[in-house]
Structure formats: structure tokens, C-alpha cells
């Protein structure tokens, strides 16, 4: 029991002192800690319910995803049938009624066409081992492709995972601290951004799919047909609000000459001639070479810059565009151009997202919650300190010191882990204060019992810590299991409570057992008492 070497004492004191120092920045305003320069100053981030901010619930448009898969399959079928040897001649490809259909001009090529379709659809089975597309032959020469529910579900699951990551990258670009972004159910994403009081800017940013495409303009389209929504074969009609010719639509050829997937950078800049806001984009090496080749082959022809299926501009290719750089101009303000640049840098959303719920939490409500939480914690701490001091005397004072240090250590660990403190987390703090002395109560009561049995002071203290430690360990293991379950299966507030609980379990056991034992040993060595009041 008394074998507590100096190196161990020094290690424990140094560790706890360092952690207590790391907790200090969390009590100071950011304006103060920012002036510390290179000095480490981690701080606990406040959650939405404490700092105020914006809450959005986004829902994926699964019908649009199904249509996008059809359009992608249309392009793949058209390319594959032309590219193979021998070439398979097909008629127009239709995507009506949620299915893709086309007719062979030569019925004898049915088997060859089926083989190519199977290669496009991965042999008919996707990653789950279930068929993603049903392929049917009707009237000996017409193929019909339908999406299976299993294939669509797999596509939705993949798209939601990718969309969650894209949303996270876009919000990080805003410079916000500790946003909460998580998937809810099969087609929803929860976004919480503490400190952001303008949800409209957040909605504008997250509402952009940022699907950027460059396509050639179909100059042979009949304006009368375009007004009716009809385009020549191989082309499509897209909205063009800024069309200088007055018509709000334009016909573009379906093949994508280059897409936003090949971007490596996008920045808001200004046009040197007009000083208008624009977005400068840079393609990767492959995209730059492709863009140069396309512009060389189509000099003098117009091409359309398309964002989220809307044409932003349709300039003429006056000369080859080399170097892999281009500019997107339109009726941009500095803010909208910057938002577009962020959206392009973070990548396109694989599925359209719409806001189905939004809330703005004011900072005043958070301040009231913090005040109430601090008051509750203070009352709990004072009550525990008074009770422990009156009941166990010196040993109670040691336990109280451990409780205070335990609170500081929890804050320090949360700051180093970059964790977020929520209102349920404050509840976890209050609970930790009340339960942190449980270990000391068990130890002190066991010491009392050993003294009543006639043990000496040193023997009673040694047995008290030794025997009670088993019970303390088992009790905290059960608490930790409950906390882990809440952390894994819970969401939002439940996770906030679980984080504080789990950190508090580890730190309270260390401070209540190891730290108080050190204080008792140092006192016994110095005073060598013949009796103790406990």
C-alpha cells in the first residue's frame, strides 16, 4: 500500500496538471485564446442546443435518382451498340414509363445485343448478388430494361452515403465548427450547424446538386419544335433562362463532352473586362486534354455550360481552349459565385436533396441552457462536497478534490477529442459529479469496516482500497456497456450524453481510486497517524 514511488507520484501529478491546464481554454472567450498563437488551446465545442445555429432535415429525391439511372443506361446502351464489332443498329431509345426500350433494325442480332446488355448491367446482378436490371425481349426485336427494386435500393444506399460525404465537405468549406451530419433512415440526412444563424445560405448551398456538364449546342433544332419541348433525335431540350436570343430553352446534344467529375479546382474570380463575378475552373490532366481536343474539333460552334440541367451560358468556341482552364460566367453575385465554387470543389451530389424541415435555434436559448446547466452542476457539486466532508472528514476532502479535478479532466479530454458538448452532455456532467464519489464511498466504508475489525490504520486503508476496487471495477464495466450501446445505437442528444458518460467513467475511476490513494499514502507517510476519523 505504501509502495508509491516518487516517479509514480510525479507522473500522476504531471498528467493531471497538464489536463487541468488544457481545460482552461474552454472557460475563456475565443477572442482571448486566439491570441495565444502557437500555444495549444483546445476547447470544447458547444452543440446546436447550447450555441444556437441552424438545423436542416434533407430528403433525397429517389424518383429523380431512378430517372438519372435510366438516362445513364440510355447513354451506355447507345455507346455500346455502336462501339461493338459488329455494330448493332438500333432505333430511338425511349425512357417512357420508367423503363428503357429500343428496337433492333436486324432481328438476327438479338443474341449479340443481349450479351452486350448483360455486360453493361454487370451480368444482371449487382454488388448485393441480386439482379439490378430486368432484360426482356418483346416481339422478337424490342428490348425492354426495367430497374429492379433491389437494384434501386442499392443505388439509393450508395447515393445517400456519397451525398452525406458531399454535404460534409460543403459545410466544412463554410468554416463552421463541429457540424453534425448524419444519415437518418434510408433517404434523409440531418444537418446541424452550431453558430450559423442564416439557414437560407445553408439551404442554398446544399440545394445545389452541382452537376456540371459541357455539351455541344444543336444548331439544327427548329425553334418552333423547341417551344413545344421537342428536340431532334440525339438531342434534348434544356432550360436556358439567360438565352440572349430570348427563348428560355435551348437544344443540346446528349453526349457529355466533359463533366464536373474531372474538375480539380473551382474559385470565385472576376472577369477582367467587365469586372463581373465568375467561377474559374481547372480540369485534371485527362479532362484538360479532352477539353482541348473537343474545342479544337468544334471551333466556331457554340457549346453549353450546364449546371443541374440548366444552361448557364452557351458561348461560341472562338479558339481552342488549352491548358485545362475555363471560366463560367452568368448572372452571378459574389456570394452566388462563391457558393457555386464551393459546390463544384466539394463534388456533385449523386441525388437531389430537398429541405423537409428546418429550425433556427437562437443563442439566447443556448445561453439560458448553459446558465441552468452550470447552476445545476454547482448545486450538485456543493451538495456532494458538504456531504463528503461531514461524513468522512479528511478522506471526504480528498474525494472532493478528486471530483473537482475529474470535472476538469473530462473537459480536457473532450477538448482534445474535439467533442461537442450538448444539453444532454451537461446532464451527463451533473450525473458524473453525483456518481464520481461512489468509488470513494465504497472505499471509505470498507476502511471503516476494517477499522472496526481491529486492523491498523495502514492495514485498514490497504484492504479498503484493495477490496473495494473489485466492486468499483465491476460496477463501472456495466455502466460502460450501457454507455457504449447508447453511443453506437443512439443519435444526436443520446450520443452527447453517452460521450460524457463514457469519458466520466474512465476519469472518475482514475481520480477516485488512483489519485485519492496517492493523497492518502502521502499523508500516511508524512503524519504516520495511529488512528483516523472516518
- Bulk shape: elongated
Oligomer: single chain
> What's the overall average pLDDT, rounded?
84
Helical fraction: 40-55%
Poorly predicted runs: 124-128
Number of helices: 16
Strand content: 15-25%
Structural class: alpha+beta
Largest sheet: 4 strands, antiparallel
Strand order within the widest sheet?
Answer: 6-7-2-17
For the record, give the distance between the C-alpha atoms at the N and C termini, rounded to a whole number. Answer: 18 Å
- Gyration radius over CA: 33 Å
Entry keywords:
single chain; 534 residues; alpha+beta; 4-stranded antiparallel beta sheet; 18 strands
Description:
- The protein is an alpha+beta fold and 534 residues long.
- It has 16 helices and 18 strands.
- It has helices at residues 6-23, 30-33, 48-51, 62-83, 110-120, 149-173, 199-206, 223-227, 285-297, 334-346, 363-392, 394-416, 423-436, 438-452, 457-489, 493-527; strands spanning 45-46, 53-60, 99-103, 133-138, 142-147, 180-184, 188-194, 212-216, 235-239, 249-253, 258-259, 263-270, 277-283, 303-307, 310-313, 325-329, 353-361, 420-421.
- The strands form 6 sheets. Strands 6-7-2-17 form a 4-stranded antiparallel beta sheet. A 4-stranded antiparallel beta sheet has the order 11-8-14-15.
- β12 (263-270) and β13 form a beta hairpin.
- α6 (149-173) packs across α10 and α11 (363-392) packs antiparallel against α12.
- The radius of gyration is 33 Å and the shape is elongated.
- The chain starts with 5 loop residues before the first helix and ends in a 7-residue tail after the last helix.
